[in-house]
Automatic annotation (TrEMBL):
PANTHER family in alphabetical order: 6-PHOSPHOGLUCONATE PHOSPHATASE, HEXITOL PHOSPHATASE B
A Pfam family the protein falls into: Hydrolase
Residue ranges crossing the lipid bilayer per the database entry: none
Organism: Desulfuromonas versatilis
InterPro entries in the cross-refs: B-phosphoglucomutase_hydrolase, Beta-PGM-like, HAD-like_sf, HAD-SF_hydro_IA, HAD_sf, PGP-like_dom2
Family: Belongs to the HAD-like hydrolase superfamily. CbbY/CbbZ/Gph/YieH family.
Coiled coil: none
Protein name: Beta-phosphoglucomutase
Length: 256
């Protein structure tokens, strides 16, 4: 097993851009639960209307293929297309009861907010330790997330002060930035930090995220294998894959 610290010299980089869910905070499962609840309720409604058998949302496969790492409304559209369901896009201000792409996305967001209000936010301690280490080395840190709840999650987790800025779903929407796997949000974060992509590292756990970072021309793309996806992460653009970011702390052994 090769030590990643031997290959990684943090002084070669000016900034590290982190995804949120599944990288810094243990909220990926929370999101998956909310996606499943929202989609299953809607799919049950459609199955009754069509007189077809109900096929539930798969929290593992469907989540990873169609919604993980994507902007909320893009995730809704992507999954529904996989089931042959077409809906009008609607408007971001649509009520959760409206049957549009935005309406369904807002149903999911309502569920997430209810769980966040209940304090269901945890962090990955290895990730937090690495962020502290990087900041101690003078390396700048930012969060790039598709979530519109990014700030609320960071503050609920008590780690918002560890990052100079975040480019999240709200920022992407206001600036008209496409979501991952397009690199636009990562590139915007680097621009706001005043850092060239070739001097920045991206840390992701989603396939769409490593694809985005790879397409953005970043110096190093680190994948976190939370779901047994090490090979897929490598094939889609991760230069290194670890199980936990604590492996990248000085004196720790990791894997490529």
């Amino acid at each position: 097993m090769e030590s990643l610290t031997a290959a990684l010299t943090w002084e070669n980089y000016d900034a590290v851009l982190f995804d949120l869910d599944g990288v810094l905070t243990a909220t990926a499962k929370l999101h998956a639960v909310c996606w499943k609840q929202m989609f299953d309720e809607y799919l049950q409604q459609k199955s009754r209307e069509r007189g077809e058998a109900f096929q539930p949302f798969d929290s593992d496969l469907d989540y990873r293929l169609y919604v993980d790492g994507k902007l909320r409304y893009e995730g809704v559209r992507s999954f529904l297309e996989s089931r042959g369901i077409e809906l009008p896009p609607g408007d971001p201000g649509d009520s959760p009861q409206v049957e549009t792409i935005c309406g369904l996305g807002n149903r999911k967001d309502k569920l997430v907010n209810e769980l966040l209000a209940a304090g269901n936010v945890g962090v990955f301690e290895g990730s937090v330790s690495l962020v502290h280490h990087l900041r101690g080395q003078g390396i700048r840190t930012a969060v790039v997330s598709a979530s519109k709840n990014c700030e609320a999650v960071l503050r609920a987790a008590g780690i918002a002060d560890l990052f100079e800025l975040w480019v999240d779903g709200k920022v992407a929407e206001s600036l008209g930035l496409p979501g991952k796997p397009d690199p636009a949000t990562f590139l915007k974060a680097a621009e706001l930090l005043g850092v060239e992509p070739l001097r920045a590292v991206v840390v992701e756990d989603a396939i769409s995220g490593v694809q985005a970072a790879s397409r953005g021309g970043f110096a190093l793309v680190i994948g976190i294998d939370r779901h047994g996806d090490a090979q897929a992460l490598k094939e889609n653009g991760a230069d290194l894959v670890v199980r936990d970011l604590a492996e990248l702390l000085p004196g720790k052994a990791g894997r490529t």
